[in-house]
Amino acid sequence: MRLADATWTDVRDADVDVAFVPVGSTEQHGPHAPLGTDTLDAVAVAEAGAAAYEAAAESPGSGGATAGDAGEVAVAPSIPVGVAEEHRAFDGTMWVSPDAFRTYVREAAESLPHHGIDRVVFVNGHGGNVEALAEVARRFSRDPAHDGYAVAFTWFEAVGEHAGDMGHAGPLETALLRATNPGLVREDRVAAAREGAADRWGEWVSGVNLAHDSDEFAENGVVGDPAAGDAERGEVLLDLASDALAELAAAVVERESV
Description:
The protein is built from seven helices and six strands; from the N terminus they run αβαβαβαβααββα. It is of the alpha/beta class. The chain has a single domain (8-246), classed as Creatininase (Rossmann fold, 3-Layer(aba) Sandwich), CATH 3.40.50.10310. The chain has a four-stranded parallel β-sheet, with helices on both faces.
C-alpha cells in the first residue's frame, strides 16, 4: 500500500505490519543518469520489497516470520533530499545538513506509531545518508514516547557479490535504472560518462580519504563503468535487494522494541 495513494480510511482498515520509508537524494549522477537516481532506486526497491514481503506472508510454510499472516507493508512517500554536499560542485545537486536531515526523517517517521504502525525500515539509496540514518533508527527505537522500532537498509549493500562494484552512477545504479526507469537513462551519453569516470571513490592515503568532494577525483561525477550495468543485471539487483529487504522486514516485525 502506497500511503500517498491511500485514503485515511484505507490506512485505518488495513492490517499494516511495517512501513518502508524510501530515502534518497537529489544529486549529480554523471551526464547520463538523472539527479533523482538515488530516490528512484530506493522507491523501486521499497515497492519490490513490499511485494516480496506480502507474497511471503500469504504463503504458508514459506519460512518467513509472518508466513500465513498476510500483513501489509505501507510504503511511505520518499524523502528526496539528503546529505549530499559532497556533490555541490555539480549543477542541480541539493542537500541539507546532517542535523536537519536526521531531525526531519526521524520526526516524519514518528508520525507512524501514532497510527499503530510501529515498525519502520528506512530504505536508503544514497551512501551519504548511511551514517545519519543509522543514528535516526537508533533514536527512533529508543524513544520512550512510543513503542516503535526502526532499522536502516541500504539496497546496494544487500546485493551479494555485486556490492563490490558499487561506485557512483556506475554499473549498479545504472543497471537498476535501466531495469526500472529505462527512459531516464541518457544512453547516448553513457560512452562519455565511462570515459570521464574515476576508478574508485576518493583519494586514499593510510586508510584516509583525502578528498571531501566528488569533483576532486571524478571530473564528470562518475565512479565506475556505467556500461557494465545492463537491464538484465538490474533485474538481478532488484530481486536480490527486494528479497533481502523482505527478509529484514520479517525480522523487524518479530522483534520487540528496544
